[in-house]
Amino acid sequence: MSATGFTKQDLRQAYEAHFDSLRNFLYYKAGDIDLAEDLVQEVFIKIWEKRKEIRKETVKSLLFTMANNLLMNHFNHLKVVRNHEGESQREDRKEMNTPQFQMEETEFGERLQRVLDKIPEGSREVFLMNRLDKIKYDEIAVRLDISVKAVEKRMSKALSIIREELGRKI
Amino acid sequence: MKEDFDAYHKYLNKEPSQGIDPEMQAFLDSTENLRVPKSSRSKGDLWRAIDEATDDDTEASGGKARLVTFAPWIGIAAAIALLIVFLPWSSDREEAAFEIAEITSKASETRPIVLPDSSVVTMNALSKLSYKADGERLVALEGEAFFEVQKGEPFKVDTELGRVEVLGTSFNVYSRADQFHVACKTGKVRVEIPSKDFDEILLPGDQVRLDRDTILFTQVQHEFVGRWQTGEFYFDKRPVREVLEEIGRQYDIAIDYDSLEMRIFTGYFIKEDIELALTMVCEPLDLTYEFADAGRVVIKSK
Known about the structure:
The complex is a heterodimer.
Chain A: H1 8-30, H2 33-49, H3 59-84, H4 106-118, H5 121-131, H6 137-144, H7 148-167
Helix pairs in contact in A: 1-2, 1-3, 1-5, 2-3, 5-7, 6-7
Chain B: H1 6-12, H2 22-31, H3 43-53, E1 65-67, H4 72-91, H5 93-97, E2 101-104, E3 111-114, E4 120-123, E5 128-131, E6 138-148, E7 155-158, E8 163-166, E9 170-176, E10 179-186, E11 189-193, E12 198-202, E13 206-211, E14 214-219, E15 232-239, H6 240-251, E16 254-256, E17 264-270, H7 274-282, E18 287-293, E19 296-301
Parallel strand pairs in B: 6-7, 16-19
Antiparallel strand pairs in B: 1-14, 2-5, 3-4, 4-6, 5-6, 6-9, 7-8, 8-11, 9-10, 10-13, 11-12, 13-14, 15-17, 18-19
């Protein structure tokens, strides 16, 4: 048998390198830290099952794609279960929540949370990756397997919502 | 309202920038101090569970296949239903339905096509796609293509061996010789194989494969569906003949081989350099390759 291209050590390294940003990424999308961590575990286990098809060089964007897919599957599954139970479609989106952050000054914190609530998911995750994880656009593009232009577009969307909300001077 | 945030993009990428509104800047700066909440589990705890789950040295569980069997009475009912539903569709197939646009891809060519309904079809090498230009969402395919379908009316793909019907989704269709595969990347895909009375809905990651006379249901990672578009060709327990034919199509080269019919290949090749591609396939199978003359490679057992 030929040696596998992706060893347990590679898995561990990938975990050390990407655990935080994967967990945060999932948290930005779904607003549930326990779910985020469960899914991160699932991602690494799945990566290991597929190790023969994986190269170290490309594992990063694969991790994020898998994380995203698992999250989508999770909510699709809930949707199926709920539809089965006869609940309305409208309630499905409630499962994806805006992440909540610990904030000190309450007035400012409230406004911040309100703004984040308004930013759609795709823009929100990119915005928070840049702000909290301090990742530059080109690196976000690599992780999400999208173009830098697409990152810019999502960020512009977030910025225009922020500008609009600040303009209201609440 | 089109806004220009170039200065902000520079600022957020820690490049020198001018023209940032102070209030915006204060807001953006404040977001840098936000913290993702801690959970009850540490990074180390979480790793231990992964470590355990990945500890056994057994083979990767990917590619498990289950055989689909059909109760004969269901088959009869399905055949009648299919006749009723699809008669108008298939009867005029040759004459009227596909005479308008016909697009073929050459060897080693990957060709993206935007259909009138703005669905995108990426054709793999040596494939043929036909469709009516009047906006009817029906295409005929010979070869292989990856589809990203716009939401709307049902979208149908007709091939020699089977049919695919979807709403808005992305999926891959392979239809060459006696092989017909459909893999679903997103959304739902309905696949019909009339000769087998097969009519099932695929969900993301599902793949159905008609291999001569056998129908197989397998699971693939979504990210591997239509992966050939990135120049990586993955094979999961495929006859080496099929793999070599794909190399031939990708590099526009004839490949001679004999007595390899029974060899099975799992792995991938990259479209970058033909020698590398051949090595990636031949090496694990103990085969050698030789460039006989221009445009011809001979494969032999070592």
